[in-house]
Amino acid sequence: QIQKSLSCLRKLRIAASRIDRVELVLHMGIDYGDVISGIIGKEKMRFDIWGETVNKAARNMEYAKANAINASKRAVHFMNKRDNDIHYLGDVEVKNSRTVEMYTLT
Fold first, then answer.
1. Residue 94 pairs with which residues in a beta bridge?
2. Closest by CA position to 29, among listed 58, 66, 65, 67
3. Beta-bridge mates of residue 92
4. Lowest-confidence pick of 51-55, 91-95, 100-104
5. Which strand ranges, in their side-by-side order, compose the sheet holding 68-72?
6. What secondary structure letter does DSSP report for 33?
7. What count of Cα atoms within 13 Å lies in the side-chain half-sphere of residue 98?
8. Which residues sit opposite 26 in a β-bridge?
9. Average of per-residue pLDDT across 58-76
10. Percent of the chain with pLDDT over 90
11. The pairing of beta strand 86-94 with beta strand 46-50
12. Which residues does 13 contact at the CB level (< 8 Å), separation at least 6?
């Protein structure tokens, strides 16, 4: 899925360069771990996922620069480092005064 995310980012950059006077911006966050999923609603049902993994991915997304993908240490551990350009951002202070090791992918 990470390769698909990087491919999406590259395609967005190409599309944005071809469109005049329109700024397309993407922020993406990735974590790796367990989630809980389910259907919400009776009248208008929708699928959703919850859990610490989702929260960590959201924190990575919040701190990602425009048109960048931030990943957690756990996600980076499962990546093929030879195929990805990974940069360590350091310990980033996030919501609730916690620090999270963050990496950016390009």
1. 98
2. 58
3. 100
4. 91-95
5. 27-30, 68-72, 98-105, 86-94
6. S
7. 9
8. none
9. 90
10. 42
11. unpaired
12. 67
Long-range contacts of 32-41 (CB under 8 A, 24+ apart): 32/72, 32/74, 32/75, 32/77, 32/78, 33/74
Q: What pLDDT, on the 0 to 100 scale, is given for residue 13?
A: 77
70 CB-near residues (< 8 Å, 6+ apart): 28, 29, 30, 60, 61, 63, 64, 89, 102, 103, 104, 105
With 90 as the cut, is the pLDDT of residue 33 above it?
Answer: yes
Confidence band of 83 (pLDDT split at 50, 70, 90): low
The stretch 50-70 carries a mean pLDDT of 90
Provide the token pair at 69.
Answer: 């993908």
